[in-house]
Amino acid sequence: MIPFNVPPYCGKEDEYVLEAIHSHKISGDGAFTKKCHAWLTERTGAARALLTTSCTHALDMSALLCRLEPGDEVILPSYTFSSTANAFVLAGAVPVFVDIRPDTMNIDETLIEDAITPRTRVICAMHYAGVACEMDAILDIARRHGLKVVEDAAQGVMATYKGKALGAIGDYGCYSFHESKNYSMGEGGALLLREDDPRAEIIREKGTNRARFLRGQVDKYTWEDLGSSYLPSELNAAYLYGQLEMAEDINAARLHCWELYRQMLTPLAEAGQIELPHIPEGCVHNAHMFYIKAKDLAERTDLIAWLKAHGVGSVFHYVPLHSAVAGLRFGRFHGEDRYTTRESERLLRLPMYYGLTDAEVETAANAVIAFYKEARS
After folding, report:
1. Which domain, by its residues, includes 123?
2. What is the structure's pLDDT at 214?
3. Residues 334 and 190 in one domain
């Protein structure tokens, strides 16, 4: 069986974790955390980067930094993970969902402005599959209406938009280092700040000024603001750093597999049997995933079963949030759902991970080809 995902592993992780253990500093913000912070700021150009225990917590921090109040509104796509909306709901805001673009599965930037009300405070752009939203348009809307922009760049490490790193374009950017992502610390994430904000480290340290205390800037530390325990263990940071050192190699390997899938499946797309991912001009993706779109939900269901029977792991992705129990309770959909539900029911993800071989890509692609030749003939 070719698994859908295998967590990345490069070889230095064991050594670095042991080094962290023997340093007797394993609770967070040690040497490896600092190395990860330096890598992230250098790579992205962000003013500051802070490792977190998850992308979910990075999103939670961004919501607190936006100073949301009960009843405020946040515009975001419905086609995203629950954490994208949860962060703002926990801060008391109302998620206002708008439709997506069918070509990228990202928020349709042309629909955002119509969803703005006097209570709107934030636009949250989720970069699906490491392919950028149309950030120039989103930033222009935000500037004209005095809104904050949060990037859910959980899938976007090493991807860019017009030369700018995803996650470092809006006011706040959120990365994921979950085991399903291109670079992993098991569970983990990072918050990127376009402009440094002292509140960020306070929120991350349970609402205290402990970081300033440890730097000798104050003689004692105390509770100053809202916050929680958002620091990951130094062991997690050590594991992650072993992969960040290999980021270029990991990225190149994934892009190679992505391109091989595309080449093999293009004939099916040209015949109108499936659709392949679209990468807009100015966007450099990171091969976070390779997906195809079947004709409809029934065909996708049959294809998943076919692939499983032929030894290939494949999965569908998000159920739109606006149709979920919590989405109906906490948010609302603005405008018409032309594409969100329909496209979500067609999308199928094929195996993609660091270490995937050409032979495995060819096996998976050939299984898809065989489905349309045999099962759909």
Report:
1. 13-244
2. 85
3. no
Provide the β-strand partners of residue 189: 52, 176
| Residue range 269-290, pLDDT digits in tens | 999 999 999 999 999 999 999 9
For residue 303, give the CATH number of its domain.
3.90.1150.10
- Residues lower than pLDDT 50 in the chain: none
Q: Are residues 150 and 220 in the same domain?
A: yes
| Whether 273 and 230 share a structural domain | no
Burial (CB < 10 A; 0-12, 13-18, 19+), residue 272, is exposed
Q: Is residue 92 part of a domain?
A: yes
Q: How far is it between the farthest Cα atoms of the chain?
A: 76
pLDDT-above-90 percentage for the chain: 95
Spatial distance between the Cα atoms of 156 and 14, rounded to a whole number of angstroms? 26
In a domain, 286, yes or no: yes
Q: Is residue 3 part of a domain?
A: no
Burial classification of residue 71, based on how many CB atoms lie within 10 Å of its CB (0-12 exposed, 13-18 middle, 19 or more buried):
exposed
Instruction: Classify 199 as helix, strand or coil.
Output: helix
Report residue 129 as tokens: 């599959």
Domain holding 78: CATH number? 3.40.640.10
Other C-beta atoms within 10 Å of 376: how many? Answer: 14
Does the pTM of the predicted model rise above 0.90? yes
- Nearest alpha-carbon partner for 287 in 146, 147, 161, 181: 181
The dihedrals phi and psi of 183, each to the nearest 5 degrees, come to -130, 135
172 and 240, same domain (yes or no):
yes
φ/ψ of residue 124, rounded to 5:
-110, 115
